[in-house]
Amino acid sequence: MKKRSVRELDLPGKRVLVRVDFNVPVKDGRVTDDTRIRRAIPTIRYLLSEGARPILISHLGRPKGEPDPKYSMDPVSRSLGELLELQVLKLDAAVGPEVEEALDDWDGQGVALLENSRFYPGETENDPELSGQLARLADLYVNDAFGAAHRAHATTVGVAELLPPAAGLLMEEELDNLERVLREPERPLVAILGGAKVSDKLGVIESLLGAADTILIGGAMCFTFFKAKGYEVGQSLVEDDYLDEARWLMEEAGDRLVLPIDVVVADRMAEDADSRAVEVDRIPNDHMGLDISLGTVGIFRGHIERARTVFWNGPMGVFEMEAFARGTEDVARAVAESEAMSVVGGGDSVAAVEKLGLGDRMGFISTGGGASLEYIEGRELPGVAVLPDGKGGA
User: Fold this and answer.
1) How far apart are CA 221 and CA 215, in angstroms?
2) Which residues pair with 55 in a beta bridge?
3) Which of 13, 51, 96, 347 is catalytic?
4) Distance (Å, whole) CA 253 – CA 255
């Protein structure tokens, strides 16, 4: 899917409204993880090098459609300025006469950063009035926020219908890598799926049945599959409403769908819980499964080592607790050591990679957990669909 690229725009002297994903963690007025800001830097630098004036806009957190100091973009502005080593014109609003006047008076040095788009109820409603106010600020529009592309908001869709739009460099990279997984993977393609709920990954598994050679299932969602097979799963998380779907998936996939053979169980979800490894058909009634164990890691590692393409989304256990993090960490190491082209998405998967310092050993780390899943599932992403095809077609 080749969308019109920022490289195809006539940029010199133009104001460019850039939708970025600066939804980053902030504590005590400081950005604690600037990964998403850093990923937007190549597009910003490209625009500057071409003589354009970038005007950046993003959401941050979940304010309730009105200004909230807790979600101000001020800390983001400081972090961005440090990374770019340039002046950032931070505005206290996103639209309105004062913003228009400030941009008219702007000397064009560095970049401009608008206030949180979700301070306006019209953002999530894709309100035409808000979209029109945003469009008045610029000549062109660039979407570089893949992580927000599955939302039909004013800053992802509305303004793109009013200004000549294009994809930013990060958006291009995201789409290119996901297309490689879905359309033209080097085989074998191994998909690793984790997380709590089958319901969240059902469409993804169905879609991957047509693309993947092997699908490795970890996380709490494996217990829905085990119950569907007739196993006792103790107090493990199970979606009883999805047992039929789990049976159907196992039948359709056959031996391409690989489930754990052993898991770490505990009497409660706590660091100091009584935990041990058991085979999957021997889970005690008063225990719950909270991670995959060593035998499963060995099997998963074997598939990953033979893979030429790997797609990984979702943790193998309760990753946020050290007692149940090993399965996710071992899978992260296996993917990093593999010679396969790897695409990693999803907050916990990415967190494991970053925690272990393995980011530079992965092929591509997606910035959009939900968006990447919806893309793999085959759903139309509004923020992508609104962008016209570029040179080379769709």
Assistant:
1) 13
2) 17, 112
3) 347
4) 6
Q: Could you confirm whether 36 is annotated as catalytic?
A: yes
User: Is the distance from CB of 344 to CB of 362 less than 8 angstroms?
Assistant: yes
- Rounded to an integer, what distance in angstroms lies between the CA atom of residue 187 and that of residue 378? 20
pTM, to two decimals: 0.92
* Alpha carbon distance 288, 275 (integer Å): 9
Comparing C-alpha atoms, which of 216, 239, 229, 184 is closest to residue 314? 216
Write the DSSP symbol of residue 390. Answer: B
The residue annotated as part of the active site, out of 136, 229, 370, 379, is: 370
370 is known as an active-site residue: yes
Query: Which of the residues 4, 36, 227, 326 is marked catalytic?
Result: 36
pLDDT in tens, 29-85: 999 999 999 999 999 999 999 999 999 999 999 999 999 999 999 999 999 999 999
**3-state SS of the chain: helix, strand, coil percent to 5?**
45, 20, 40
Amino acid present at 246: A
361 counts as catalytic = no
Tokens of 6: 């920022």
Q: What is the pLDDT of residues 263-302, one digit of tens each?
A: 999 999 999 999 999 999 999 999 999 999 999 999 999 9
81 is catalytic: no
Catalytic residue among 7, 15, 197, 306: 197
